[in-house]
Design brief:
- This protein has helices spanning 15-36, 41-68, 74-96, 103-130.
- Helices cover 77% and strands 0% of the residues.
- It has a single domain, classed as Four Helix Bundle (Hemerythrin (Met), subunit A) (Up-down Bundle), CATH 1.20.120.
- The chain is an all-alpha fold.
- α2 runs antiparallel to α3.
Length: 131
């Protein structure tokens, strides 16, 4: 089952960012599939680390572009990125401690909702301001 489908409203009009948005959606779908299957705990933990690293790198690219272009909502947009990264790190810590029994669905839903809302609001505004 696909967690997030690519939609054109996710585009911001910068090829490198749009490419990474597509990659992140695929990564989220891969994570969702992995969490829904019978995967060894260490493999899930490693994959969560990969998700965190790729999302962090993407946010760094997006934030660099916003700074270079003098984006007026940079601070709030960056703060939204930080909230997600903090949440992912908390989830990773909780997962390592065995806190999630129904982990897959909770994480998948959280990430899907955050990314969809972020793309539709923060990134849509970024697209409008940079376009």
């Amino acid at each position: 089952m696909v967690l997030v489908e690519w939609r054109e409203e996710f585009r911001i009009g910068i090829a490198s960012v749009d490419h990474e948005h597509r990659e992140l959606i695929q990564l989220l779908n891969d994570l969702h599939a992995r969490l829904g299957g019978e995967t060894e705990k260490g493999a899930v933990a490693a994959f969560l680390g990969e998700v965190n690293a790729k999302i962090s790198a993407h946010f760094a690219l997006e934030e660099r572009i916003m700074r270079e272009r003098g984006y007026d909502d940079y601070a709030d947009h960056k703060a939204d990125h930080e909230r997600l990264l903090d949440g992912i790190r908390d989830i990773m810590d909780d997962y390592e401690c065995g806190a999630y029994l129904d982990y897959g669905e909770a994480l998948s839903t959280h990430l899907r909702d955050w990314f969809s809302e972020h793309f539709k609001t923060r990134d849509a505004r970024l697209h409008k301001m940079l376009g």
